[in-house]
Design goal:
globular; 20% strand; 2 domains
Length: 157
């Protein structure tokens, strides 16, 4: 499929509008997997064509791609800690439901001013968490590392 950056923005807008709850000024939980499907298409187009998606808006192309990346990044991080799975605050990276899938990436707040990047395997009875990188001084650094480390295929089932 030849898609333009405008096509992706329209798909995102339609998806967000479909799941928007006007009474709560938020979007429903079901929007995350829907955006994940759009993101998979976007990444395939972006990488298959080596950065450029077919587009007619060449003068605005770079700015639109950066906007798309920011939109997807906003929805890719889901807060999911301080529950039965995590004793600390955790942030799931991806568009799947947190704490259900083996091998998904998380950033955890170690509550000592540092953040760790881990992979979680909820199906295991022991050793459910594998450390990838420890000791980040900011959550932004840990999230940036996670995105680079995970690459483009982290979200596939």
């Amino acid at each position: 499929m030849n898609a333009s950056t405008t096509d992706y923005i329209e798909r995102i807008a339609y998806t967000l509008a479909e799941w928007h709850d006007p009474d709560e000024y938020s979007v429903g939980d079901d929007v995350i997997p829907s955006l994940g499907v759009i993101y998979e298409d976007y990444l395939r187009s972006k990488h298959a064509k080596g950065i450029e998606i077919i587009t007619n808006e060449y003068s605005h192309h770079d700015r639109m791609m950066k906007s798309l990346d920011r939109i997807f990044d906003h929805f890719a991080w889901q807060k999911c800690g301080l529950n039965g799975d995590w004793s600390v605050q955790a942030y799931h990276y991806g568009f799947r439901t947190p704490n259900l899938w083996d091998g998904d990436y998380y950033v955890t707040d170690q509550e000592d001013g540092t953040f760790d990047v881990v992979m979680y395997y909820p199906a295991r009875e022991e050793n459910c968490v594998e450390s990838i990188q420890r000791g980040f001084k900011s959550i932004e650094d840990a999230k940036g590392f996670t995105k680079r480390y995970a690459g483009t295929d982290y979200h596939e089932s």
